[in-house]
Amino acid sequence: ADLLILVFHKIITCGHHRLQPLFDCILTIIVNISPYLKQMCMVSASKLMHLLEAFSTPWFLFANHTNYHLVFFLLEIFNNIIQYQFDGNAHLMYSIIRKRHVFHQLSNLPEDPTSVSRPSRKRTDQESEQQIFS
């Protein structure tokens, strides 16, 4: 399972942008095996926390209307591991406690329309600039 998490992390973080539609499938695979992860190494736990940290930033969440699914899948992974395999996953618990600010930021996401529309407006401005330079 550690190898699977490390490979999927590498695909998500360093892969080509054309692989982005597969992120849901990749995280679904990890969700499906997460209740059976008896012991996870520190590197795998850190990689899962890194994905949550990257996917829960406001600019990423509000950039696309389906990006929240990725955060949901990661939270489901953590929930399954905590619920079913708590005893053997001390490294993940340590990573969650160490990165608790990520969960605080996620719970305090902006809800006002100006904050929500700002990231998507920046994205469309960047896309229009790229079309101009192309």
Structural description of this entry:
- The protein has 134 residues and is mainly α.
- Helix content is 72%, strand content 0%.
- It has helices at 2-14, 23-33, 42-55, 58-61, 68-84, 90-98, 100-107, 113-133.
- Helix 1 (2-14) packs antiparallel against helix 2, helix 2 (23-33) packs parallel to helix 5 and helix 3 (42-55) packs antiparallel against helix 5 (68-84).
- The longest helix has 21 residues, at 113-133.
Concise structural overview:
It is built from eight helices and no strands. By secondary structure, it is mostly helical.
Blueprint (SSEs and pairs):
Layout: H1 2-14, H2 23-33, H3 42-55, H4 58-61, H5 68-84, H6 90-98, H7 100-107, H8 113-133
Helix pairs in contact: 1-2, 1-3, 2-5, 3-5, 3-6
Q: List the helices and strands in order.
A: HHHHHHHH
Mean pLDDT: 86
**Low-pLDDT ranges:** 125-134
Shape: globular
- Percent of residues in helical segments? over 70%
Largest sheet: none
What's the multimeric state?
Answer: single chain
Structural class determined from secondary elements: mainly alpha
Query: How many beta-strand elements?
Result: 0
Amino- and carboxy-terminal Cα gap: 43 Å
Summed up, the helix count is 8
Q: What are its keywords?
A:
single chain, 134 residues, mainly alpha, 8 helices, 72% helix, 0% strand, globular, disordered C terminus
